[in-house]
Amino acid sequence: MSEVLLSLRNIQKRYGATHALKGVDLDLRAGEVLALVGENGAGKSTLVKMLTGVVPLDEGTIALNGVAQNFANAQASQAAGIVAVHQETVMFDELTVAENIFMGRHLQRGPFIDWATMNAQAQAVLAEIGARFNATTLVKDLSLAESHLVEIARALSQKASVVILDEPTAALSQQEIRDFYGIVRQLRGQGVGVIFITHKFDEIFAVADRYLVLRDGAAVGHGDIAKANEQELVKLMAGRAIDQIYPVIASTPGEVVMTVKALSHPTEFKDIAFTLKRGEILGFYGLVGSGRSEAMLAIMGLNPQAHGEFTVNGQALQARRPADAIAAGIAYVPEERQRQGGILGFSVQHNISLAGLSRFARGPWLSQVRESALCQRMVARLRIKTESPYTLMSGLSGGNQQKVVIAKWLGLDPKIVILDEPTKGIDVGAKQAVYQLIAEMVEQGLAVILVSSELPEVMNLAHRVIVMRRGLQVAEFDRANAHAEHIVAAASGLDGNHTQVATA
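RESULT FIELD:
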């Protein structure tokens, strides 16, 4: 058994009346992957913030290699050998990949920055993880998945003894996820201790050695992954068994409410065409970079180089800007909820009312009564867990942040809702709540476009599934013919062609 690398004892943290961590103990050994598991709000993020020096602990001890630590700031934690890779990438878009990797610790030769050595070392780290872009590339020119790889490269370049991976695969394709497993195993082989945070159980069982489950700020279970199963972990996480995560979709699609023809972009997608019916969930599946999200942005008037023909309820739509799509009854919940979906520094109430401010206007003033009434109605309808309507969105768990973003659009009474990766980075309990909400939407007559890279989501929820690959619409399946191997084959190109392999 390897020696204990990181040891936490009786970790306590309070935020006012909220007891975020309640006496948590944790041991991490050298060359071990420890899965830190729990629902949103269980205390995982608070624990990571303390380990990385972002917030101080109230009580307890942190020891690294047997030496007690008291991190005054993030720099002190990094200097001790603890590095975190977060779900939401935070980088400087106008700087190069190498500059981002060495941010705050630029290599110098005398009084000057040693650009040649820094670029070379950054390129070597990128090669280790199989990145296919150069160290001198500007971050703004990378895809979301590539930006995530830069975060991983930054951690590797610091030769850390403890690496915290917080939902690291959220933006990666299936091939990139498999490559990432190799990176984790490489770290383990080098004697690095890895704390792996994910809501995807297949990832936990693929790479972790042990697990620790948090619930409501307390450690409620731990053990060897080899002796655990998914049902046990879910029960520990939620405090109850979740037997049926996917609801029964009772709605029957009705009349066509939207048609899209010849939707194209010079570089991102070509000749996308489909119909959407009232009460229908239409799934869009594909690997990262397949053009799914870009096509949805075009429908919302957010992709100015795109062109195509749209009709909504029989009326032609020219979506030159989002306001045109919104006026036609289309709502869009984006993939990046923290950067595109909501404003973290605004309250829950202000986020919910943000998309429809004109509805609350009385002359030049906003009616707080109307705004408050909408917020109360949406908080109750979506079962948003918040202390008050005035709680900042940043203070909510990821699942509740997602509900706030959805509530913002439902408050406009749309006819069509586009959901782009609606369960990205949220736990199994929150996923179940979002799935139930989607089922309720279509039962009430809304039409839903569900964009997801989670194959079980589209297979269990969608009436039809459209598959995209490299900007092309390559297949369409109805629910009866939606078999996992056929969908994956179409998305990856293993079907051997670029035509439909099944039709609704």
